[in-house]
Amino acid sequence: MVRNLEANAERLPMISHDYFFHTVIALGSISSQVVDPGLNLCSPCVRPFTGDVPAFPEYDRQLEEMRKRLSTKDEMPVAGK
Q: Which end of the chain has the lower number of beta carbons within 10 A, N or C?
């Protein structure tokens, strides 16, 4: 893990906070289906940061629905009203 981390530090010019979760989980030797080896900085198969945001279809759908609802109203909703 340490060798991969050192090699990736030299190989990857830029990373984002997205790598943190996957790297820390791997360092803790925790296995989970949500861990992406491509975002684990201790992995030999880590992907370079491209600046792209991963797709979250359900979130995107909910966001689009909210935008449609808000565009049909005269004012923005206020919490507690």
A: C
Amino acid identity, residue 78? Answer: V
DSSP alpha helix (H) spans, the chain: 2-11, 18-27, 57-71
- pLDDT tens per residue, range 48-65: 877 665 566 676 777 788
Classify residue 72 by its DSSP letter.
Answer: T
Length of the chain: 81
Q: What is the pTM of this model?
A: 0.56
| Distance between CA atoms of residues 13 and 29, nearest Å | 26
